[in-house]
Design goal:
- It contains six helices and no strands.
- The chain is mainly alpha-helical.
- The longest helix has 26 residues.
- It is elongated.
Length: about 130
């Protein structure tokens, strides 16, 4: 059975909306691509992926979840917003960070910002899937 994708302002079924959000979390911009918002989806995919990779290249750190240190835990939650990029980098052993590197803080900033921006992109895909945009 063919899946109906909106071409105008019409809402999708709740399960499909959830699928769009999970897809957008796993791959930045993929929710928009699935909703046939190709230009937006490609911009998000390229920009957020580049920001994440640049953060790793600048020797930023993918923070661990340490609840004893609230700011580290918040940074870890922000990193997790990058979805599949986060898990891919973690699986390949990237994101250890080099504290003494001059670019360390810049790398952290790029990684955290990429995750937080992806969460905003997911909210935009959610609104689009509900027909609000």
């Amino acid at each position: 059975m063919a899946v109906h994708r909106p071409t105008g302002p019409q809402a999708l079924e709740p399960a499909t909306v959830a699928f769009v959000c999970v897809l957008g979390w796993l791959v930045p911009g993929a929710g928009h691509l699935w909703l046939r918002r190709s230009e937006r989806g490609l911009v998000f995919l390229v920009a957020l992926s580049a920001m994440f990779v640049l953060g790793l290249a600048l020797e930023g750190r993918l923070f661990p979840f340490e609840l004893s240190q609230p700011l580290v835990a918040l940074a870890a939650a922000a990193n997790l917003g990058s979805g599949g990029l986060y898990f891919g980098a973690w699986a390949l052993g990237h994101g250890g960070g080099t504290v003494v590197a001059p670019s360390y803080e810049y790398g952290n900033t790029f990684l955290i910002t990429a995750g937080l921006l992806n969460l905003l992109v997911i909210i935009d895909a959610f609104d689009t899937a509900l027909g609000r945009k």
